[in-house]
Amino acid sequence: MRLITMSFYRKLVLSVSGNKVVSGFIKKYGMKLGAARFVAGVTLKEAIEQVNLLNQDGLVVTLDHLGEFVFDEQEAFASTRACLDVLDAVKQSGVKSNMSLKMTSLGLDLSKEVCMKHMRMILDKAREYDNFVRIDMEDYAHIDITMEIFDELKREYGKHVGLVIQAYLFRTVDDMKRLEETYEHCNLRLVKGAYLESPKVAYADKADVDKNYLKIIEMHLLSGHYTAVATHDDNVINHTKAFVQKHNIPNDRFEFQMLYGVRPETQRQLVKEGYTMRVYVPYGNDWYGYFSRRIAESPANAFFILKNMFRK
């Protein structure tokens, strides 16, 4: 019953978030009502300040300039410019952070050529600064083209580019096997998945997603490739700790990742235990889609916002 309820809740939130009245209200008042808990500011300066504070507590970071689904090349270049600014700011400030991005924000839906042009601009700079760029996996409709582009960029830029893999998709294990066998170094961020997908391509039952998630974590750890375990689930964290200890996998071959504003005490505890803990730090004006997915993940996040709405 609880699984059905959570599934219904998630679908409801994602559906409601598309309503023009709701989106207009949240976009106008959301940051004041509590979205700032999950988004590290609107400007890059604000984000770098938060990264510095996280670094002081021993946490490393991946910065993400929020944005997706641009509709013309000018918008795509603006998003590209923002990514270049992130890499410059990280270099100049000396903070410990890499960067993640969504290729739809760089013109993927306009054409592969536009997106590749922008990706190469970003990765040229990442290579110059010896930094790293993570390509986010988006909805199912974009997976094949994302994989195609990643393969091309991986051959060109090697260790400077990585990918996100989603556990709730049926195809995931096969995709991972191919990547692990193709590349000498394949840094993957493993997540459960946050998009609303058809049961024809994704597990509908949370228990099945959880089972596959543990499977791909073990699979990638044993492959010898670097593994980023992105989770807030204590069961997954404890399972990973026990698994790496059992198989003598050193701590420098994997890391835990969590979202900015979610379980900060646990993040700091993992650092104290000697693990690399990376915080995903989003910022920017186009925060609404990201924020909607965070609310859809947990009723507790929705209650946090509602509480702020009625606070005097």
Please list the strands of the largest sheet in the order they lie side by side: 1-2-3-4-5-6-7-8
Q: How many separate helices? A: 12
Poorly predicted sequence stretches spanning 5 or more consecutive residues: 21-30, 301-312
Helix content: 40-55%
Structural class: alpha/beta
Q: Please compute the radius of gyration using only Cα atoms.
A: 19 Å
Characterize the largest beta sheet: strand count, sense, and whether it forms a barrel: 8 strands, parallel, barrel
- Strand residue percentage: 5-15%
CATH architecture: Alpha-Beta Barrel
Overall pLDDT metric:
87
Polypeptide structure, described:
The chain is α/β, with parallel strands linked by helices. The protein has one domain: Alpha-Beta Barrel (TIM Barrel), CATH 3.20.20.220. It has twelve helices and eight strands. The longest helix has 21 residues, at 73-93. The radius of gyration is 19 Å and the shape is globular. The two termini are 36 Å apart. Residues 21-30 and 301-312 have low confidence and may be disordered.
